[in-house]
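step 3/5: co-fold with CO-5-methoxybenzimidazolylcobamide
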Amino acid sequence: MSLSKLVEEGEVYSIEDAVIKALKNIEPIKITEELIDGLRMAGDKFKSGEYFVVDMMQAAETFKEGMKIIKPKLGDVKKDYKGKIVLGTVQGDIHDIGKNLVVTMFEGAGFEVVDLGIDVNKDKFVEFVKNDKPDIVGLSALLTTTMLEMEGVIEALKANNLRGQVKIMVGGAPVSERFAKSIGADSYAPNATEAVNVALKLLGK
Ligand code: B1M
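step 4/5: write tokens
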């Protein structure tokens, strides 16, 4: 069974061996893409009603197990310091698979990354910017309802006179370039690889 199929079908006990075997002749980034494909296919089945939440969770768990093996390999790429980024999934949202991939890619590219986790409220972002002075704040949201929280974070930074100190990057499935502009973010990235390129550009590197 292909790696994407193993994720789609939630074969959590088989994924580790399959990924280790695949690593012998496939690039880690390609394996990551296959694992993501499997998750997307599970998402499509959920959307069409063929999968229930429990099936989706099983697929997500299988994806995570696969990524545990891949993550250190992605981190081998380059390690020179590029800047500091704080990331989190906004309040009300517990989706973290995409955000974790973004974190992995940033770490691999040489950024200092602080991952605030999921369901992060705006005050936590404000507090972090005030005390730890990151170069970039990265916001992730997967729900059309929670993407609105991103604007709340930006407004809270403005209210605390901190907006000028940081660049803000947003991303997640329902987010678009247009939405990013409309809420006053500095940039949008459609995926984890692009997120690193966009961040480097934001910092003039
Ligand atoms: Co959820 N869920 N989910 N879910 N889930 C979606 C998002 C949904 C589209 C499914 C569907 O209906 N087709 C739908 C949202 C509909 C909408 O808002 N319009 C949905 C729903 C409705 C829900 C619940 C409400 C379901 C329920 O309980 N009835 C619930 C919400 C809970 C909450 O957050 N409060 C829920 C729960 C869950 C699970 C817990 C079961 C699980 C999450 C597990 C986890 O994350 N730990 C889950 C999953 C797995 C999904 C789908 C199937 C897959 C999401 C995912 O991980 N994709 C998703 C359907 C889909 O997206 N096709 C769905 C793979 C990941 C690699 O991609 O996250 O897009 P993505 O990240 C990408 C880019 O977006 C980008 O880079 C990443 C890597 O390339 N990116 C950034 C992300 N963040 C970025 C930040 C950046 C830059 C780029 O800069 C800072």
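step 5/5: annotate
The chain has two domains: 3-74, 83-202.
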